[in-house]
Write a structure and sequence with these properties.
The longest helix is centred in the N-terminal third of the chain and has 26 residues. About 6% of the residues have low confidence. Helices cover 33% and strands 6% of the residues. It is mostly helical. The protein has 21 helices and 16 strands.
């Protein structure tokens, strides 16, 4: 009989409903396993069995959250979004310079992601090897529970892989799989072995997990979640960072084995495309997965929920219903409502996996989750911290309403070589936006709908609709120096780019005034739009033809660079956004299409912890991350507003990119403990 000593404590239970059992039964408990607890006793008791898995879920919290405050999730900030904390942005600058790890400013940050992941991996492995049907757990429930643990184990490896590259693979069975990570000394696995393990485990989990969950169990993975993670990691494995990357020939283990494949394999792109196709076919077959849309609102509307702004007429798309066009949807609200708390997770069929509303005890509670992100975006005038900024690069990346690129140099030219601002009399100059107030720079006018759901430009209106005091409702906020929310010397509470962030903010959100509050938010950990874009990207890179079996072996896909299949990935995302699909010449040219995918992912997935990893796997980080951060000229007052909208380098945000920043460093403590571990190239080895 195996005995587990001090196996775990559920002091803060991860609030997740287990199988058919209500999650509330396992919340706010102070239940501890005794010093010694036999596996037999644990897995013949339903409550102990459930608590055992609950603890594995709890390791998705803290430093392992994927969308939240920079204290826990700095990778949510790349060249698209900044934070202004400590010494007027000094912490962001140091992170951008790669000052993380032993001996650096960030040496005590983000360490839990390694330890917690391996704790979760160990916990899940024990669970998989011991859970079984009992008098209280039937065979179907036992299979589901095993699938959940299998998903978790592979998911922890996925999160580690994105940050650290190839990491050690622990035994899944055998004599020592129950030992803690601290007792083991394993070398890094090769990229291929790690990726193949995760892909295989997710395929098996997809066969074990159900199609859907009820609202009490929404944070538990389903078949779609497993298929999505499988598609993600296989696409990463096909990408330049991991596929024939001779720049990292020196990334080895202690025996000199190269951990990143040195020979390019084009078939990996076909495998990745087939993995994406598995989910897409599942979505079409079942109707359980799709892009979220909101119906067009032709009349009515107010400041919080404005009448639909219909995109400029396009003969190809304006008269066709979604997904062939946008005639029947509100592109702005379709996108905005996915992130701001408008939807319960169970209502959003685009959501593939979520940690839930990570602010309360009914889900994976984390103090610095999405609601805290919103608090840091809200202006000081509404009780917010006012320190998250959108970079000029990100602001300028959003297209015009007709799908053409934004061009700063043409803003003045369009209006007679002068800056023009909105007034109550010039609405005819900007009919395609949600700019309804005076004094807004015309560079923010007539932009695509995702811009208005994501960018809190200077002159943006914060609704705070729950507040009963008019002084704090529908508040127009400018970031000029001298205003309440503008640059403030000696304080960190000002947006250092002069461009705020509106994504995740609900019209009812506020932190000042009677009844003001931030409503719960669901973490959009994995979305279907992400997989659709990965599918098109993978197909774009396929050379020749490959026959790839589906994850369950029930069919075989013939994978080629098929333009219509590429459109199948990109067009629905563009239609939902209310912008035209890319022209044929873009689809026909591999390089042009890659640039289009980079652009589309930058906009569609803004603030969702993707771009940091995308630019690395594409190996374009040296170009995009080393470029200096630009924003508005925050030194300018409202009387100097023409100068405010001239892009300038943001002071104290110098940035660079070196090779070591592709991967996070292994901690000094871990290298001392594990004699078989090797450091990522470019970081100190401490030998």
């Amino acid at each position: 009989m195996k005995i587990l000593k001090n196996i775990f404590a559920v002091a803060v239970a991860a609030g997740v409903g287990l199988a058919s059992t209500s999650c509330s039964d396992y919340l706010d408990t102070q239940k501890y396993f005794k010093d010694e607890q036999s596996l037999e006793k644990i897995f013949n008791d339903k409550e102990f069995t459930m608590q055992f898995l609950t603890f594995a879920y709890s390791r998705l919290q803290g430093d392992n959250i994927e969308i939240g405050h920079s204290n826990l999730c700095p990778t949510n900030f790349c060249d698209d979004m900044t934070f202004n904390e400590g010494n007027n942005g000094d912490r962001y600058r140091k992170f951008k310079l790669g000052e993380i790890g032993y001996g650096y400013s960030y040496q005590d940050y983000y360490k839990n992601c390694w330890d917690w992941s391996y704790t979760g991996i160990r916990q899940a492995s024990i669970f998989i090897n011991n859970v079984h049907s009992t008098e209280l757990i039937n065979e179907e429930e036992a299979t589901d529970l095993k699938g959940q643990a299998r998903f978790l184990r592979a998911y922890f490896y996925w999160m580690l892989f994105r940050k650290y590259g190839p990491v050690p693979l622990l035994p899944v069975d055998g004599a020592d799989y129950t030992r803690s990570y601290d007792e083991l000394s394993y070398p890094r696995a090769t990229t291929d072995s790690l990726v193949n393990f995760v892909a295989s485990e997710m395929a098996q989990a997809a066969r074990e997990l159900p199609d859907r969950r009820d609202n009490l169990n929404i944070t538990r993975p389903t078949k779609r979640a497993a298929l999505a993670v499988r598609a993600k990691i296989l696409t990463y494995a096909a990408s330049p960072l991991y596929n024939g990357n001779t720049e990292f020939a020196d990334f080895t283990d202690k025996q000199g084995h190269q951990l990143i494949p040195q020979t390019y394999d084009n078939r990996k792109w076909a495998v990745a495309a087939a993995a994406c196709r598995d989910l897409i076919e599942y979505a079409d077959r079942t109707g359980l997965v799709g892009l979220h849309t909101v119906s067009i609102k032709k009349t009515g509307g107010d400041e919080s929920y404005p009448k639909t702004v219909v995109p400029p007429y396009n003969a190809k798309y304006s008269d066709k219903p979604f997904p062939e066009g946008w005639a029947d949807i509100d592109p702005f609200e379709s996108y905005r409502s996915e992130f701001n708390g408008e939807l319960y997770a169970v209502e959003n069929n685009e959501l593939l996996f979520t940690r839930g509303k990570n602010m309360d005890d009914k889900d994976l509670k984390t103090e610095y989750g999405v609601p805290n992100l919103v608090l840091h975006q809200l202006p000081v005038s509404l009780g917010g911290w006012n320190i998250h900024g959108m970079t000029w690069k990100q602001m300028a990346a959003y297209d015009m309403a007709d799908g053409t690129a934004f061009d700063y140099t043409k803003v003045k030219e369009k209006y007679g070589n002068a800056n023009v601002y909105t007034t109550k009399n010039n609405g005819n100059l900007h009919p395609y936006d949600h700019v309804s107030n005076n004094g807004v720079w015309m560079g923010f006018a007539n932009r695509e709908p995702r811009f208005y759901a994501s960018c809190a430009y200077s002159g943006y209106v914060w609704n705070n609709a729950n507040c009963t005091e008019n002084a704090y409702r529908n508040l127009q906020v400018f970031y000029y120096r001298g205003t309440d929310n503008g640059r403030s010397n000696g304080s960190e509470r000002w947006v250092n780019t002069g461009i705020g962030v509106a994504k995740f903010v609900h019209p009812r959100d506020g932190s000042r005034g009677t009844n003001s509050s931030i409503i719960p938010k669901v973490e959009p950990t994995l979305r279907y739009a992400d997989i659709l874009l990965l599918y098109a990207e993978a197909l774009n890179n396929v050379e020749g033809s490959y026959d790839i079996p589906s994850y369950d072996g029930q069919t075989t896909y013939t994978i080629t660079r098929d333009v219509e299949e590429m459109r199948r990935g990109v067009k629905p995302v563009r239609m939902r956004a209310g912008v035209p699909d890319y022209e044929d010449d873009v689809y026909a040219d591999k390089d042009k299409f890659f640039k289009a995918i980079v652009h589309e992912r930058q906009l569609e997935l803004f603030g969702e912890n993707n771009r940091y990893y995308d630019v690395r796997r594409w190996k374009i980080a040296p170009e995009v991350e080393s470029a200096q951060i630009y924003g508005c000229n925050t030194l300018m007052t409202e009387q100097q507003r023409d100068l405010f909208y001239q892009p300038v380098r943001v002071p104290k945000l110098q940035t660079s990119f070196s090779r070591r920043q592709y991967f996070w460093p292994i901690s000094y403590e871990e290298l001392k403990r594990n004699k078989n571990m090797t450091q990522a190239p470019g970081w100190l080895d401490y030998d």
